[in-house]
Amino acid sequence: RCVCYGLGRFGRCPAARYQLAFLLLLLEELRVPPGRCALFDPAFSAREAAALRALGLRLLPENEEGKHGVQGAATLFYMVHCGKALYNNLLWSNWSPAALSKLVIIGNSFRGIEERLLSRILERDYSYIAKVLKGVEEVALPSHPRYLDTFNDTSVHWFPLDKLQELSSEVWDFVEEPMYQDCEDLEIIRKGEE
Questions:
Q1: How far apart are CA 44 and CA 79, in angstroms?
Q2: 0.70 exceeded by the pTM?
Q3: Cβ atoms of 91 and 129 closer than 8 Å
Q4: pLDDT exceeds cutoff 70 at 174
Q5: What is the DSSP annotation of 122-142?
Q6: C-alpha span between 190 and 64 (Å, rounded)
């Protein structure tokens, strides 16, 4: 399965078109049927939504705010240049070694997020990203001069079960839903704000 968040207005934006092309090639390479790939971006126009459907892709019916559970199935999350809250929500909704070990994320580098944010802000606002840093493997996508703005700071992330099981039990005990009430730079469109 594949879930794609935040693709953007590919009808207007060349970078979003390149990201869509890469997603389609990735699905083909991984032999994931287009019908097993669901997308959501509150910015999609009616014409863009129709184009995605014509490609055989599915549109999610509502804004999940990144809170999509893997439900026991291996799932690729394609989230290039999404906001930190979306990644944090995704981790929260799959907060167990069994679930996290079933997901792969192609998106903003978690190491880059850690380097750019003060640790107190990372731990307060994006606690699930902060807690999983020792349980994630990450490899940056190779850079290409033509696509620097399209895939910069993009990595493939996966969560090996043995690494997750080495994390302390306190890491797994705290499962409070993220609320972001003190977050000053929230980069997410909340449900109902579309």
A1: 15
A2: yes
A3: yes
A4: yes
A5: HHHH-HHHHHHGGG-EEEEPP
A6: 9
What CATH number should be reported for the domain whose range is 2-171? 3.40.50
Q: For the chain, give every domain's residue range.
A: 2-171
User: How many other CB atoms are there within 10 angstroms of residue 3's CB atom?
Assistant: 23
Provide the token pair at 146.
């033509």
The tens digit of pLDDT for each residue in 143-158 reads 888 887 888 899 999 9
Give the closest residue to 57 by CA, choosing from 89, 21, 88, 91.
21
Element (DSSP H or E) covering residue 3: strand 2-5
Would you give the distance in Å from CA 173 to the centre of its chain? 23
Q: What is the pLDDT of residue 97?
A: 96
Which residues are bridge partners to 38 per DSSP? Answer: 3, 58
CA 159 to chain CA mean position, Å? 14
State residue 189's pLDDT score.
Answer: 60
